[in-house]
């Protein structure tokens, strides 16, 4: 997915520069001489750019809102100046993306990876390997908890402490905190070979709970 976004950013940057190079000078009695580009080409590029920003940054992101504002017509302005404004926003988003500063992209990638790992856990459970399934689901959970701590300025530590700190910071409520504690208990028992402390049904519920937690967290 990240490779696809990288490719699209590069494609749209190339199209942007090509569009910029088509500038011609026009004249009117009111504005005198002014630069201009094809309005339909600008509209087409803007639609494609906003689609990418929506997917990468989010529809309500600062990048998207600034791009929309930059598109708006202004008094005594021309569409070449509009192009320069949206170009600045687009290149800023591209730089943030390439620098790894967009949480939305990270979440998309993680959702893809974690979804694959949870599918693997489900397959192992079906095949009779409940302990291995529990360990994999537990790793997905703990990685997500660590990322939440990073995003909220909370120090990393043992899972129980990070879980408590996140609940205290109102990142999620006490009910979710208790669910995470229960999931961690199954993971720990599986990792230590204490198979008498859980059953396949517990692991199935654990995987389902982790999936729901990801659906809430990685959005």
Notable traits:
9 helices; single chain; Four Helix Bundle (Hemerythrin (Met), subunit A); elongated; mainly alpha; DUF4145 domain-containing protein; DUF4145; 2 domains; about 220 residues; two-stranded antiparallel sheet; about 5% strand
Which secondary structure elements does this structure contain, and how are they paired or packed?
Blueprint: H1 2-20, E1 24-28, E2 32-36, H2 39-56, H3 62-71, H4 79-98, H5 103-126, H6 130-151, H7 159-168, H8 174-191, H9 200-217
Antiparallel strand pairs: 1-2
What overall geometry do the principal axes of the alpha carbons give? elongated
| Name of the CATH superfamily of the largest domain | Nucleotidyltransferases  domain 2
User: Termini separation (Å)?
Assistant: 16 Å
Q: CATH fold name of the largest domain, please?
A: Four Helix Bundle (Hemerythrin (Met), subunit A)
- Total number of strands: 2
What structural category characterises the helix and strand content?
Answer: mainly alpha
Q: Flag low-confidence runs.
A: none
Instruction: Walk across the major sheet and give the strand order.
Output: 1-2
Tell me what portion of residues adopts beta-strand conformation. Answer: under 5%
The domain count comes to 2
> What radius of gyration results from the CA coordinates?
24 Å
**Tally of separate helices:** 9
CATH class annotation of the largest domain: Mainly Alpha
């Amino acid at each position: 997915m990240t490779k696809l976004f990288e490719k699209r950013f590069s494609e749209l940057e190339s199209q942007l520069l090509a569009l910029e190079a088509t500038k011609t000078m026009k004249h009117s009695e009111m504005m005198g001489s002014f630069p201009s580009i094809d309005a339909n080409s600008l509209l087409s590029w803007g639609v494609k750019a906003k689609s990418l920003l929506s997917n990468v940054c989010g529809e309500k992101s600062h990048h998207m809102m600034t791009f929309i504002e930059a598109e708006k017509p202004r008094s005594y302005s021309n569409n070449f100046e509009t192009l320069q404004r949206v170009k600045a926003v687009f290149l800023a988003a591209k730089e943030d993306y390439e620098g790894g500063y967009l949480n939305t992209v990270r979440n998309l990638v993680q959702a893809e990876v974690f979804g694959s790992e949870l599918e693997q856990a489900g397959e192992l459970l079906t095949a009779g390997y409940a302990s291995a399934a529990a360990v994999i689901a537990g790793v997905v959970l703990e990685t997500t908890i660590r990322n939440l701590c990073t995003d909220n300025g909370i120090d990393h530590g043992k899972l129980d402490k990070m879980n408590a700190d996140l609940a205290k910071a109102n990142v999620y409520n006490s009910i979710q905190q208790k669910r995470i504690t229960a999931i961690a208990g199954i993971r720990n028992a599986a990792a230590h070979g204490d198979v008498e402390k859980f059953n396949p049904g517990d692991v199935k519920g654990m995987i389902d709970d982790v999936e729901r937690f990801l659906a809430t967290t990685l959005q």
